[in-house]
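Run log // design_07
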């Protein structure tokens, strides 16, 4: 059995490592990682939202295994949508998830700042960008006003556009950051610069490699230079007495988990 060992972070991965539902995944991962990213979906065709009984089991498993959960808010929410009705729908969906997982010990809520399905924010005109940011501000106010969670529990994730586009909303709202290093590598953003700018504000990092034009693969496929930068930066923060960040292997198979942990062996204490 691959057991957790000491790193300058809380090691995590997703709730989709074995081909089964959330509870069997958490049972499998207990003792292997310290944080599990719950990727939750809800649609007319498919839902993996845990029942109240599942939530009770997740609480019990967490208590017995020193686990926390990072909750990825649904991917089909568009907090920067130009239509306020769509923003209200999106915030409402987030609030239902937040209420559902209230009893869980959580490290963070991970959220995407997007404008609509398939919309390329990089192609926006200056006016469209301003409207997108204004929409995010509106949604952020609704989200924080609709729940009792502190703003710092919500972590905006960097996607395929420059994160400085949405940074004013993150800063003004008091949000934290999910620094997705796999996205930085995949989309060609400078890892060192993003660590310098945003790591202090990050609660969670998403780590995954790129191969054959696809991301979310084993860390064996991440550039050694990028992985070194991340672990060295985290070690410096830990030495300075900073809180531990969650280092989520955002991958989706046992083979990728095992080879990712192998890639981390040289960072063991």
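design_07 sequence
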């Amino acid at each position: 059995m691959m057991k957790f060992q000491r790193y300058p972070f809380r090691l995590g991965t997703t709730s989709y490592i074995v081909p089964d539902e959330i509870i069997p995944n958490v049972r499998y991962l207990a003792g292997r990682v310290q944080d599990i990213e719950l990727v939750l979906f809800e649609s007319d065709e498919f839902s993996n939202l845990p029942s109240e009984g599942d939530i009770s089991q997740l609480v019990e498993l967490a208590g017995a295994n020193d686990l926390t959960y990072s909750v990825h808010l649904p991917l089909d929410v568009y907090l920067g949508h130009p239509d306020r009705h769509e923003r209200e729908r999106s915030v409402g969906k987030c609030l239902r998830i937040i209420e559902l997982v209230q009893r869980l010990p959580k490290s963070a809520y991970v959220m995407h700042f997007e404008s609509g399905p398939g919309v390329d924010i990089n192609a926006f005109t200056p006016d469209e960008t301003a409207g997108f940011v204004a929409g995010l501000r509106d949604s952020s106010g609704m989200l924080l006003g609709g729940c009792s969670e502190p703003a710092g529990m919500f972590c905006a994730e960097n996607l395929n556009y420059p994160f400085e586009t949405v940074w004013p909303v993150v800063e003004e709202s008091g949000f934290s950051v999910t620094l997705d290093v796999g996205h930085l590598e995949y989309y060609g953003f400078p890892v060192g610069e993003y660590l310098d700018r945003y790591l202090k504000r990050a609660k969670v990092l998403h780590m995954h490699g790129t191969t054959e034009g696809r991301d979310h693969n084993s860390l064996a496929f991440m550039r050694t230079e990028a992985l070194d930068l991340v672990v060295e930066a985290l070690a410096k923060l830990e030495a300075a007495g900073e809180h531990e960040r969650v280092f989520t292997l955002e991958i989706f198979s046992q083979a990728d988990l095992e080879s990712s942990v192998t890639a981390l062996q040289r960072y063991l204490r």
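The mean pLDDT is 96.
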